[in-house]
Amino acid sequence: MIAELALTLLLLLSPLALGQTQIHQFQYQTDEQFHEELVVRPLASDHVNTYFQFTTRWHGVHKNLYHTQLTPRVIAEILQTYDVKELHIGLTQGLWRYETWGYPIVEATGGAELWAWFSSPNLTDDSVNKQWMRLANVFSGILCASLNFVDNTNSIAPKHIFRPQFMASGNRSHQFVRYATLPREIVCTENLTPWKKLLPCGSASGLATLLNSGYIHNTKYHSLGVKVRTLCDSDDPSNCLVELTQTANLVYDLKLLEQSNTDFSLRRLFGMGLNGYCEMASSSKIYVQLNEQGERFQLTPTPLEEVLSTVGGHNVLFGVYDIQQQFEGPGARLFNIAWIGPKGNSKREHTSPPPLYAHRYLLGNGQKHGRIATEVTNTHYEPLPVVLMELVPWYVHAYLHTLRISSKPQHLHEYTSNELKFSLLHYAPGKQRELPTHLEIGFMLPARSSALITIEVDYLLLKWLEYPPDANHGHYIGSAVIGSQLPIGRNYTALPLEGYLFQDSFNASQTAYTLTLRTEALIVSLPTPDFSMPYNVICLACTVVALAFGPIHSVATKLIIVERQTTIPRNLLRKVVHKLTTRFSQAIHQYCCQ
Amino acid sequence: MLHKALLLVLAIIQINAAEYDTSILPEAYIDAAQHSTHTNNWAVLVDASRFWFNYRHVANVLSIYRSVKRLGIPDSQIILMIADDMACNARNPRPGQVYNNANQHINVYGDDVEVDYRGYEVTVENFVRLLTGRTQNGTARSKKLLSDAGSNVLIYLTGHGGDGFLKFQDSEEITSQELADGIQQMWEKKRYNELFFMVDTCQAASLYEKFTSPNVLAVASSLVGEDSLSHHVDPSIGVYMIDRYTYYALEFLEKVQPFSKRTIGEFLQVCPKRVCISTVGVRKDLYRRDPQKVPITDFFGAIRPTRVSTDRINVTLADEEDFYTDFDHMPPKKQFKIVIQPQFIAKINK
């Protein structure tokens, strides 16, 4: 009995002892790893792109997803409860300008965008619809965004654009995807706060301390992202990996930071330098792109090492800082990197646009009908395959028979009646108040040309209560998603799907680079009634009734007596005389007739 | 024995409260704590106005949010409803910042803010569902008011109001009868222990006229027939920054610390007629305690009364397996090759 007691005591104490060693060799013993990275890339025309990526990878026991250490429990539980294998949520403010800035590391559209893959043996379409709505509701609470407005009236199941990025053992027929976008969402500190709370170190230490709300909202483009995916071994379904990637993509305009146009530093961008690294992190690194259009920036302090990354024939030079090494010794200090641009060179080289980019706009005038136009431009010397996905909400009625694609060579300005052949890959017509219109079109875009895809639309008149409180702002049509495959890696910075860190994109040449571009979102003015009309009508009607009633009443109830027309003199003396004479004549009349 | 335990508790409180001013809690407080039914605090803060010219209503509600959070109520127990976005609005010259003062004294938006209902979600229906607890299926947990019979709830409403109603987002109204009904339902469902109802709108006193539920203390920034006025204009944003009543309330609350001895009675005196121009209305008849003896942290903070117990308590130990994972005995996870399906599968003929 005493031996048993001693044994239980030993068993109880051993994890404590193990825990002690755990703290020192955290990254070697546990199956959960956390990495933080910051990438700084100067863009054309005095813009700087800073990209934060926080990756948590958990290779562990998946019978029970509740015992998390670094992965936030709320994310891990959701995977189990809603059969989600892959989830992407993006909250963005601003527009990514492809022509001048190239391609972002992570694509996102303005407002909120979310899509998810569900996979489980017992799933049907209906149950996926319900789970999708519940998932959106849960995330509206986690990220403090109005994602609860996502429901079946604005979600679609994309067929060709968002392919699975997860690995799950399971039949393809049990995999379902849903996509929705809410272009009206704003991103502010209220979304950043809960997003930071999902990180292992929160906002207390590490690279997340740089994300100060006063500084990062003064940017031209600002995007927060959460991406979760599950990777399972095809031989052994219980051997699974859960990967959570949180990204923050910012583009600063240096002219707005009120000092020189070409020099900047971490402190100017974020308000403070770094004061440490996250203790839970296995690696904490800063990557700086050193060459931009043939010019090199001077960096202080100099990077630890320089890496030349060749992707698809294009070279990019990165300088690497290892924050864990910087803060190895004792003592508190602030770490700051300063860039000094080349002086005396005010003229920058003309930036060449990326191989493929797109714009979207509305044609037509009036509030009855118009045309949605998407323009895709190929600046590459080879033709490119393009898949265009459009999600047109139910309050805009799109006519499929008016879908046209016209093309023109890049150097011309006008679109001729030259039509491109396209294949309609998928069409799900919309239904008023129930479903949005879902269109996926594929075509080959010839080399060095632009294509204009137009479809005619009608704007519907909504019921009175369906208008939002600020109805005159307009209604949004979300952005189109354009998928393509590039043969070259120019401007391409996205992470390869087999890897998970930014450093996995170094020298990661592939046969083809998949792109999903986003365009602008559109605002349409649906015919909006004048909501003050009932009040005005009541006032007007009541006034008219009152004005009409008074005289009619008086005419109907009073007797009109015509007065004999006599010549009544005008001035006072004559009036008095006239009165006396009439009295006198009346008196005589009375006297004589009695 | 009890005295010794009490002294121990006092000593612990003293050590913890070393940085604050008051170090000895009055005996009357401990006495009240032993007999109170108050166990936790919730706050429901609502801004019902949209559009840039109603900037001051957002600044109002954020001022109260800031005070309530500073005095200890956690975000999980604060429901914040803001109908429009001012901080990241394109018209705001200082993105991410909302100030209570043209001299930018306090950034009431701050760096750590969680808004539960925002934009189009701030409707009368959602507010009444929140109060009564009848939220729709699937509503996120942070959007529910999960108060119980021991909760002291603070409700703060601001926006445009009139005699008997409060306007939500320029398109609908909540009437004082609906508010009274909602609070009566809360009482019947035992969703509050005591309720402090604050309103900062024009003719605000009309909103609490119909209350009949017990343990409700209400304060309004103006009486029926009076308008609540705003404080001052900031030329750089072009609109009024904050309302008078909330400006002076914030000034009062900024001086309150978590262990303060200030009372609700003092808070009810804030903003006299010479600064507020409107008369502050108070409804005390439904409240059984004397406001002069109720600490302000009963509603604005989250100070829990502690009770010292000398009873024996049975504790059941949990299973050991739930608490440690045996790293040595687990088989190492096999690394496997990651193969992702091709991402572009559309076959488009050239």
Automatic annotation (TrEMBL), chain A:
Q: What do the Gene Ontology cellular component annotations say?
A: GPI-anchor transamidase complex
Record has Amino-acid biosynthesis as a keyword: no
> Top-down, what is the taxonomic lineage of the species of origin?
Eukaryota, Metazoa, Ecdysozoa, Arthropoda, Hexapoda
Pfam families reported for this sequence: Gpi16
**UniProt cross-references to InterPro entries, sorted A to Z:** PIG-T
Species source reads Drosophila mojavensis
Q: Which domain of life is it from?
A: Eukaryota
Please give the name of this protein: GPI transamidase component PIG-T
Annotated signal sequence is 1-19
From TrEMBL, chain B:
Keywords from UniProt, A to Z, are: GPI-anchor biosynthesis, Signal
One Pfam annotation reads Peptidase_C13
Sorted alphabetically, the Gene Ontology BP terms of this entry are: attachment of GPI anchor to protein; GPI anchor biosynthetic process; proteolysis
Q: Where is the active site?
A: 160, 202
Question: What pathway is this protein said to act in by its record?
Answer: Glycolipid biosynthesis; glycosylphosphatidylinositol-anchor biosynthesis
Q: Which GO terms describe its cellular component?
A: GPI-anchor transamidase complex
InterPro entries noted in UniProt: GPI_transamidase, Peptidase_C13
What GO molecular function terms would the record report? GPI-anchor transamidase activity
UniProt superkingdom: Eukaryota
**May I ask which residue range the UniProt record assigns to the signal sequence?**
1-17
Output the PANTHER family linked to this UniProt entry. GPI-ANCHOR TRANSAMIDASE
Question: Which family does the similarity line name?
Answer: Belongs to the peptidase C13 family.
Q: What is this protein called?
A: GPI-anchor transamidase
Gene symbol? Dmoj\GI15431
